[in-house]
Amino acid sequence: MPRRTSRTALDRQRTPGRFPGFLKSASVCVLIAGLLSPLTQAAAGEAAAVRTTAAARTTAANDHCGGQCSDILPPGQSGNATLAQILLNQAFGTQPDHADDQLAPYGDLAKGYPTLTDSTINTFFNDASFGVPADQVASTVKPAGRGDVTIVRDKKSGVPHITGTTRYGTEFGAGYAAAEDRLWLMDVFRHVGRGRLTSFAGGAPSNQGLEQEFWRNAPYSEADLQAQIDNAVASAGDRGKQALADVNAYVAGINAYIDASDSGRYFPGEYVLTGHKDSVTNAGTIDHFKTTDLVALASVIGSLFGSGGGGEVNNALSLLAAQQKYGVTEGTKVWESFRERNDPEAVLTVRDGSFPYASKPADAQGEALPDAGSVAQEQLVYDRTGSAAGSTAATASTTAAKTAVTSAKRGMSNALVVSGDHTASGNPIAVFGPQTGYFAPQLLMLQEIQGPGLSARGASFAGLSMYVELGRGQDYAWSATTSGQDIIDTYAVELCQDDYHYLYRGTCTAMEKIEQKNAWKPTTADGTAAGSYTMRVWRTKYGPVEYRATVGGKKVAYTTLRTSYLHEADSIIGFQMLNDPDYVKGPQDFQSAAQHINYTFNWFYADSEHTAYYNSGDNPVRASGVDAEFPVWAQPSYEWRNWNPTTNTADYTPASAHPNSIDQDYYISWNNKQAREYTTASWGDGSVHRGNLLDDRVKKLVAAGGVTRAALTKAMADAALADLRAEDVLPDLLKVVGSSTVTDATAAAAVSKLQAWVTAGAKRTETKAGSKTYADADAIRVLDAWWPLLVKAEFQPGLGSDLYTAFTANLPVDEAPSAAHGPTGSHAGSSFQYGWWSYVDKDIRAVLGESVQGPLARKYCGGGSLSACRDVLISTLKEAAGRTAAQVYPGDDLCAAGNQWCADSIVQRTLGGIKHSNISWQNRPTFQQVVEFTSHR
């Protein structure tokens, strides 16, 4: 194990008095040698807080979980590191205390789950009971010397347990603890939200990509950010006033830690490495936080995880390609079959009833489809200078923007919840959590918060942890998965006068120009040469311009409008309610709280008696005849009902129209379809979805009865190692191949390996813990190579190159763990959400003559001939089998070419100065809870 530096030692290490210009390896070693000598001075650090080493056990009389609540959040709680700790980590791999102590237990579940029992769950998870036993107290802090709040940290994981006697003090403590654990990350993301990351952290292409990706979608001015606070408070009555008071106290706590760490010189070392603080004189500043910073942060998180929709222009392009290929009628039929708006074979979260939303209208009105070849994405970056200038630099930043935090955007989440009618104890059980990607430090942080009107433990996004956002209360727990229903529409605004004026309700109106100018220079952390550019967004009443095109020869700008635009702060009320034990007393109260969250999530609930589900989001009521799949004209007839462009408010579908349920026998979610007739914006809700991996396993558990926490956790962990293609599609592919004797030796050998892998369970799992070699490695290599080859050979001849390419823009072909070419990128964990597995499944079954509900409009493999289809599969299988491991897994900065295990492995992507080891692949939530409450208030 890497050596550690403890929170009570180097965590309080002062910034050194000298620092070389750049981090060369030799100078790092010299510098570290000089830094190790004053370790005994560490206790001098926190002058502004009163710290002791013992405390009485926090009362847990309000804990109804009976020791049966657990959670985990890798890599670790500590996300701040002093300069000394960063240097030690870079040179020797030394980890600050609690920086990675949840990484190994998290990773070990991949091989440890088969023998899991209820009594061994906390070998792989933390005990998430309220409070800290006296003998487990690592430290106690009264931040800024306040007498109304105490922060206790436990020895095992360093999680802050915040207890306040006043509401202000409690929230002050939450802000202080957040800054202790994630100050640098919070600072990074408030700059991302404002589109100012490069000026703050350097001009690396990845930084350019981050700020470009998010600022394009939320180009807010300071006045916009403040207005969102004012509007959220004004519209929420007393709860709105309380939320503002909570935010003010939280920000004050953050700033108190900034002041204390600055004067004590134990602030995060990244501030020195990026040139914000001087290592000799301590000159420079760490800017205080403002309430508007939290709105900027919320806009990033909401964009990442809670803003379903968009894509109407891409949908239009693939529809036009289909109509060009087949004619309007047949082409539309083909398009609809691939879109799978409401596939009858799709796995569902709510299995009873239907909840029509964003359905295909009988007679679409107002569509504004672009003229062929006319669409161009709106330029974002202008006036490039220095290192930002030139085609190479522009390409690098554009590519980075497309892949910015893709593991978080595509990661999503899962949930398994079983009613007490089917458990051994008679109490409901839940295993759930968000897949938010893997970062160092992690985007989320753990905390317990206890104070007037607040009682919860769980995870919150750093900088937004005034409330627990996913976690447990006194006698209930909740979690969420991204739902993705469409709350974003694309409008075609007709241009007038010039390219920057448009017709708004008959009047030629100027677009609003919003600009952000950024400049950077080299720092120790980022040696990118000096450069600058200006980001420019043109805003209309219908949202920011995203594309330009012509429609019927008329010049238009395509704009995107989402219901949460200018409403990034509104969801705070729902989270406040979820943390309030006087508000949430049962499943109906939980659903009511979730209704106040305007982002698109699936929410799950469990207490000792009930389970529940609710789909949140401000779903706009669209005008009659509007098809949410395509752009529509920016005219009053096609606007959202009662839409107010000044406030961006409209009529929203009522709570009863959102998928919801109480006490269904079980719930599963892995970002699959919520309910019948409820259309999500993303493609791929068909017959094969990774949600099937959960549904198949939980259904068997429920049928057998007597479900335990260990059994449900094992079901999740088993699905986390499954290759969806191998488990649900490969058997039918092999059926076609085996429809007659395989005479080719290469193909026969590959078939034998693939069949053996399917028989063994189709898992991507090590031969033994720590071997870093997969069982069935050859079969996995063959399928990884075969899948993209077979999909192209199966569909491109029938669809034609143009339509095939257009459909792959709507839905990528593959998302294997090692598929850096896929939407998630490599080393991201989350896999098998987006791919053509349903299309292959339906097409192959149709060719085999099997029953298919909701079939594709045509048969594609071999033109529908079984023998021709078999020839296609065998020829591509032979090609795949001949590809070496080095060709299938070409290697990267971490992995040598041909290292299959490493290519799949999960990496905590660095957002600061501390690096961590990679772990074996699992497809599971980043933060995860296992809960079973034994009693109720």
Radius of gyration: 27 Å
The chain-level structural class is alpha+beta
By DSSP, the count of extended strands is 33
Task: Figure out the total of helices.
Answer: 27
pLDDT < 50 stretches: 1-48, 51-59, 405-409
Strand portion, in percent?
A: 15-25%
The percent range for helix content is 25-40%
> What coarse outline follows from CA principal-axis ratios?
globular
Strand count, sense and closure of the main sheet?
11 strands, mixed
Amino-to-carboxy terminus distance: 44 Å
The spatial strand order of the largest sheet comes to 2-6-7-8-15-16-17-18-26-27-29
Mean pLDDT equals 92
Question: In brief, what are we looking at here?
Answer:
With about 950 residues, this protein is an alpha+beta fold.
